[in-house]
Write a sequence for this structure.
């Protein structure tokens, strides 16, 4: 017979003892499923152009982001010296996210509830579209996800007071890894709270606000000390347009609309019916919790409102759009809301309970399948660049790349952001430098026009040509 926690133990200890089996069970489900879903990207993971410094432990390639993004924790990670393969970094990234999801699912499930809901919530959290979009930066994001995983696990074993005392420290660490990660810490604190009240909610928001402001000021001070700039000036490549008054804020409303439109599109895989299904499910789940657990609904929606308020302020104040991968917290809150509503409806045998359970299973399983499919979209680019690397390795001489690299079909399917992704990948595979003629035309001035400006083709095929002892990778544009 399974023994229940000793009632004489402190409350935090009893809660930890009760949470551990559910957490281990959630991990046992989540980690194999997550690795299976991402199997298409494990053997040869996609690496974005600005993730190569983390992969190769080259701090100089990341130094500028300490100023323009305040990501000092990531910079320290670049100093580690040891270089591990891309597949290992990707697997570690996925494991850290799987542990975080399992811990959040355990924290969100009230004590004494069925482990089924903990497992389903973990499975619903795993295919979060923002996490999928972060995967190509797995080497850079390892320390940030380690902070999230540690905090989420501590939430299961520490008292509420002890966890909140740690919030300022973890907020600073999370902010210096990815600026929106502190919002996930807030969500964890709100989710794990059991003795809910309006004064407690207000106190937690004040604590988080002070912690977030302290983290921002700490990074500002560090940038001032190191870079001579008190602040985090945005990279000019993002075309920032800081608002100086209300008119400026108002002029940035189209950017906010664009940010939200892209977010909703990515969360629903560009399907209007799927988006409407999510909205209806969210409204129904909120109505259920408002009726049965009103304070829990308020706490969860507060996490969502706080995050969206900070995002809205950033867009309107700085005049930039925000990528979907920064909205990690939205999927977490959505998943917790719908699964907790299903759990409340399932307290007794009823048709609404069965429908709710089926709905959350539909979300979890369909998104796991869709994510698995999405992870295979990088295969063509990875396969073709491996073939290019093999052809280059068989030849001597310098290597050049010309033509429309980003418009190449495999590159577009993989969603490459910059042509330098090609150069970095081929250098990783061959150990030889690749000169991009589009970036440094003077290096390719000696090449003939037929190579530097290839003719369009109906079905472009990259090819390797030899010219006076040099290797020229030609990417024809689409006709």
């Amino acid at each position: 017979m399974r023994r229940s926690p000793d009632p004489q133990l402190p409350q935090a200890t009893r809660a930890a003892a009760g949470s551990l089996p559910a957490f281990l069970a959630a991990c046992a489900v989540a980690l194999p499923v997550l690795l299976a879903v991402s199997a298409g990207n494990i053997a040869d993971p996609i690496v974005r152009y600005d993730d190569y410094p983390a992969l190769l432990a080259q701090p100089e390639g990341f130094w500028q982001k300490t100023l323009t993004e305040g990501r000092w924790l990531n910079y320290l990670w670049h100093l580690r010296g040891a270089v591990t393969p891309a597949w290992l970094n990707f697997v570690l990234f996925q494991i850290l996210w799987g542990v975080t999801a399992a811990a959040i699912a355990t924290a969100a499930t009230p004590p004494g509830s069925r482990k089924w809901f903990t497992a389903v919530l973990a499975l619903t959290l795993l295919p979060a579209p923002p996490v999928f979009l972060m995967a190509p930066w797995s080497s850079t994001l390892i320390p940030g996800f380690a902070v999230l995983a540690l905090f989420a696990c501590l939430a299961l074993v520490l008292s509420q007071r002890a966890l909140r005392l740690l919030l300022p420290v973890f907020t600073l660490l999370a902010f210096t890894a990815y600026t929106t990660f502190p919002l996930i810490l807030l969500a964890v604190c709100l989710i794990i709270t059991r003795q809910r009240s309006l004064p407690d909610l207000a106190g937690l928001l004040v604590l988080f606000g002070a912690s977030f402001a302290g983290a921002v000021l700490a990074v500002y001070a560090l940038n001032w000390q190191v870079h001579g700039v008190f602040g985090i000036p945005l990279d000019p490549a993002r075309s920032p347009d800081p608002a100086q008054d209300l008119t400026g804020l108002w002029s940035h409303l189209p950017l906010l609309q664009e940010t939200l439109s892209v977010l909703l599109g990515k969360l629903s895989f560009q399907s209007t019916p799927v988006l409407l299904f999510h909205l209806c499910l969210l409204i129904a789940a909120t109505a259920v919790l408002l009726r049965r657990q009103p304070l829990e609904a308020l706490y969860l929606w507060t996490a969502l409102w706080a995050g969206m308020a900070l995002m809205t302020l950033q867009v309107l104040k700085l005049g930039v759009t925000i990528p979907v991968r920064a909205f990690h917290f939205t999927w977490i809150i959505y998943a917790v809301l719908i699964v907790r509503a299903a759990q409340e409806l399932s307290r007794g045998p009823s048709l609404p309970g069965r429908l709710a359970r089926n709905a959350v299973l539909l979300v979890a399983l369909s998104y796991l399948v869709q994510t698995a499919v999405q992870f295979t979209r990088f295969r063509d680019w990875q396969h073709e660049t491996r073939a290019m690397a093999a052809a280059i390795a068989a030849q001597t001489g310098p290597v050049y790349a010309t033509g429309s690299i980003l418009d190449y079909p495999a590159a577009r399917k993989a969603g490459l952001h910059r042509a330098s992704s090609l150069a970095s990948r081929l250098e990783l595979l061959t150990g030889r430098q690749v000169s991009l003629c589009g970036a440094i035309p003077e290096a390719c001035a000696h090449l003939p026009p037929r190579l530097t400006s290839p003719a369009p083709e109906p079905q472009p095929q990259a090819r390797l040509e030899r010219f006076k002892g040099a290797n020229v990778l030609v990417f024809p544009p689409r006709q």
About this structure: The CA atoms of residues 390 and 459 lie 23 Å apart. The longest strand covers residues 470-475. Strands lie at 399-403, 434-436, 463-467, 470-475. Confidence is low (pLDDT under 50) at residues 1-10.
